[in-house]
Amino acid sequence: MTSHVKIRLASERVNHSVTTNNDLPRFYTPGEVVTGMEDFMRGHGTYAVDDSLKAAVAGVMQKVNKLICIRPRKNRYVGEIGDVIVGRVLEVQQRRWKVDTNSRLDSVLQLSAVNLPGGELRRRSAEDEQMMRKHLQEGDLISAEVQSVFSDGSLSLHTRSLKYGKLGQGILIKVFPSYIKRRKNHFHHLPCGISVIIGNNGYIWITPAGQTNVVEGDDDEMAAVELQTVSRSDRDTMARVRNCIMALAASKMMLDDTSIMFAYEESLKYDDVKDLLDPEAMLDVAFLTQHRINYVVEE
Amino acid sequence: MPGPDLLSSQGLRLDGRRPNELRRIQCKLGVFTQPDGSAYLEQGNTKVLAAVYGPHQAAKSKSLQDSVVVNCQYSMATFSTGERKNRPRGDRKSQEMSMHLRQALMAAIKTELYPRSQIDIYVEVLQADGGAYCTSVNAATLALIDAGIPIKAYVIACTASLAWKDGEPEPLVDVSHVEEAAGGVVLTVASMPSTGAIGLIEMSHRLHMDYFDTVLSRAMQGCKDIEVILDKVVREHLAEGWTKSDDAITI
At B57, which CATH number? Predict the structure, then answer.
């Protein structure tokens, strides 16, 4: 079997940076004094010594009235109520699931916060506690919404909407959560016949548009959708979208439906999807996308 | 106390440096995509990779209610020294190095912010040419910054030694392997130069008390110099990843 393998010298590596503007903000680094005045409030990424406020992370300053925060370029996902997330079930416990959401602590999905398949109402019985593993197993992927944040920072999730629930066939991509742009809607049906769920936690789910992620029906119907074959062309498109997202992430660009769609359109000049894995092609796609975004912003 | 001849008659060291001159430093942040933070650092011929995972959920047995668990692992590559040798991770030397790394970094990490969590720091020495511990600490600091983990200040480690020139003591900064092997004293200091706090201090041989202060101040000066270089790199790294579409507008 012959395969296309390219090993590059370190000196030939591509710099993925697409930064164009020169008006950089002021950056702070750990230990740097942010302000010497006492009448400011200490926010995230800062700490107080004597009467001065110092930065604890490397990033830019955000100021809300008297509250000063330093936001790092990347960190773990910090959940907020209402965020859409994609997560993986780690553990089945008493009346709850533990879910990995790329945050600091594992998130919790309570049995009382899910809609059971078939839309039937839950009877609070020992029986449905025993049925939990049938519903969601270890390793299953789910989409959910953040319901509340506990005092220690861990998240409580819910799937009480038809939008959320177990995910079927598709591709999962993990990027740094800071690359995700917060939007009103994180479920997108792209014109190319692909649905994406851009989780606020940096997990992105790509699935063919025909496959709605939530199946309202009994177990047999669910199993049928699970096993449905995805056509070759759909898989090609999904792979293309995935490579486009990876290209944008490599160039540290913000991800939302617009940037993904632009990148997809720019990528169409590469006929073969696997060509998009070349660093030069990735940079090219990211650069053209950035250019189009800048153009739209200026309009 | 006639030590080994580490300084030439012109006052230059074995590799041509002046006594207060550091080795060349080159580094890069964010070298991996899988970990939360990573860094690659070269100090002369000493080359180190560091990766940081976390903060993430700590294992139940280790989890602390009021602070974060810091887990360090120091390992050396088979090809890192002149003699090719398989180095198992759990051996005494690397265990000791891991402990020292942890001690230095714990001094800076704001551990109280992340209860029930854990931070994993993996350091791999690719080439050891003296000062492997120092380079590891510096690389781990960069990786922590890349991961966005709050630290009080840069933790920088540096070594210093003592040589004799015309019968006068002359401290040397950033000791290389040749100078280490020559048998002089090596003082290792891990400190936070911006506050002056010392996280770890270690000395390899005996040294007369009269000379200790000069050697220590030379090592601290070395830490300060390294901090300036690393700070510049961190700023460049931040600027590189800056795009216009960023929503870092103040609310």
Answer: 3.30.230.70
Interface test with B, best of A104, A254, A289, A291 (most B CBs within 10 A): A104
Q: What 3-state DSSP class applies to B122?
A: strand
The residue assigned the tokens 């700590």 is: B58
Residue B211 in domain:
yes
Query: Phi/psi of residue A107, each to 5°?
Result: -90, 165
- Under DSSP, the state recorded for A77 is B
Per the structure block, which two tokens stand in for B141?
Answer: 């600091």
Look at A71 and B248 and tell me if their CB atoms are within 8 Å.
yes
Q: How many CB atoms lie within 10 A of CB B162?
A: 24
**CA–CA dist B155, B136 (Å, integer):** 11
* Chain B residues 91-150 with CB within 8 Å of chain A: 110, 114-117, 145-150
Question: pLDDT grade, residue A117 (50/70/90)?
Answer: low
Q: How many domains does chain B have?
A: 1
Cβ atoms of B18 and B10 closer than 8 Å? no
- Dihedral pair phi/psi, residue B84, rounded to 5°: -75, 125
pLDDT computed for residue A131 by the predictor: 81
Q: What is the ipTM of this complex?
A: 0.87
Identify whether B16 is part of a domain. Answer: no
Residue B216 maps to a domain: yes
Percent with pLDDT over 70 in chain A: 90
Q: By the 8 A CB rule, do B30 and B36 touch? A: no
Sites in chain B below the pLDDT cut of 70 = 1-4, 243-251
Among partner residues B56, B146, B244, which is closest to A104 by beta-carbon distance? B56
Q: Could you give the percent of chain B with pLDDT greater than 90?
A: 69
Task: Please tell me the least confidently modeled range out of A154-168, A207-221, A245-259.
Answer: A207-221
Q: Is residue B12 helix, strand or coil?
A: coil
Domains of chain A: 30-73 (2.40.50.100)
Pairing of strands B156-165, B46-57: unpaired
Task: State the Cα–Cα distance between residues B30 and A177, nearest whole angstrom.
Answer: 15
Residue B215 makes CB contacts below 8 A (sequence gap 6+) with: B160, B161, B162, B171, B185, B187, B207
List the domain range (segments joined by +) for residue B39.
25-240
